[in-house]
Amino acid sequence: MKRIFVALLAVSVCACVSTKKYNTLRGDKIFVDDQLSLANDRIAQLSSRNALLGEQNDSLGRLLAQARGSYDSLSTAHAALGERYGRLLADGSAETARMMRQIEASQAELDARSRRIEELNQALAAREKVIEDIRRKVSDALVGFENKGLTISTRGGQVYVSMEDKLLFKSGSYAIDPGGAQAVRDLSNVLATNPDINVLVEGHTDNVPYKGSGELKDNLDLSAKRATTVMRLLLENRGIAPERITAAGRGEWLPIDTSNTSEGRAKNRRTEIILTPKFDELMQIMTEKQ
Questions:
Q1: Burial readout 194-209 (b: 16 or more C-beta within 10 A, e: otherwise)
Q2: Which of left, alpha, beta for 80 (phi over 0: left; psi -120 to 50: alpha)?
Q3: Do 166 and 267 form a contact (C-beta atoms < 8 A)?
């Protein structure tokens, strides 16, 4: 009888432990699924925003080209009016007075177009300076990590800080390495002192299927978890407002090398921290009446 009681007690304890472990894993899975859903929604919002930034960049170029073309046309017309006025000046006729008024109106429009071109040129120069200043500050802060799996570039009015997995993560893991963690902390110091920069952290994998176990199902889960890890490390710096940063998992779907070689796959395994400065003044100039 005593042996039967002991056996029943052991079964009860095991069942309790198994249930507790199951509930813990189930809770972790629900949390990850929720975070993935939020990240996908944010990805859609940011994709729309990036598309808008590209359209605004193209619009600014078109506005400048149009303004320059209009200025050239007005200059030609103004010169022609001046020549005609010179021929008619000796007549002292009403036509001369009319031509004079037309020349003055043409000159006023020419001056206005010239000012518009100068405004656009200044806005473009200011935009390029802001981007270059950010790139320089980031490069200065991360100088010890370049050529160690970290590159910095500018594209489409944004600064890209790309960190290869060999700097940040071991294969199949989302636990950040100490060296990579220091690079992220150094970058966070730059972001803390430049509050007008928004940040998107994107995790990328290669196209080799994820073979891990547990709460992660595939490369998308792994990339999202890695992006979240980097985001959390950035937010350890209290000088960075959480609303400035978004984490997104891109999985294997945005490769930078499609050669399908071991070298190409290594390039694709990366975390990109995309810095977008605010251009409120530039946007105001672009939307003003031409």
A1: beebbbbbbbbbbeee
A2: alpha
A3: no
- The contacts found for 144-151 with CB under 8 angstroms, 24 or more apart, are 145/179, 145/183, 145/186, 148/179, 150/183
CA distances from 96 to 30, 90, 105, 110 (A): 84, 9, 14, 21
Q: What percent of the chain is modeled with pLDDT above 90?
A: 47
CB atoms within 10 A of CB 33: 13
- Give ∠ CA 132-135-140 in degrees, rounded to 5: 125
Residue 148, amino acid? K
Domain boundaries, the chain: 57-133, 142-283
Per-residue model confidence (pLDDT) at position 50: 66
pLDDT score of 16 more than 80: no
Beta-carbon neighbour count of residue 151 at 10 Å?
15
Note the pLDDT tens digit of each residue in 187-231: 999 999 999 999 999 999 999 999 877 889 999 999 999 999 999
Query: Beta strand pairing status for 158-164 and 150-155?
Result: antiparallel
Which two three-digit tokens encode residue 228?
Answer: 């979240």
Report the 10 Å Cβ neighbour count for 8. 10
User: What's residue 25's pLDDT?
Assistant: 61
Structure tokens at 191: 């972001």
Instruction: Quickly name the fold that domain 142-283 has.
Output: 60s Ribosomal Protein L30; Chain: A; (3.30.1330)
| 3-state SS class at 193 | coil
For residue 210, give both structure tokens.
């994820």
Tokens of 190: 């730059």
pLDDT, position 158 = 94
> Strands 197-204 and 245-249, how do they pair?
parallel
Q: Is the pTM of this model over 0.70?
A: no
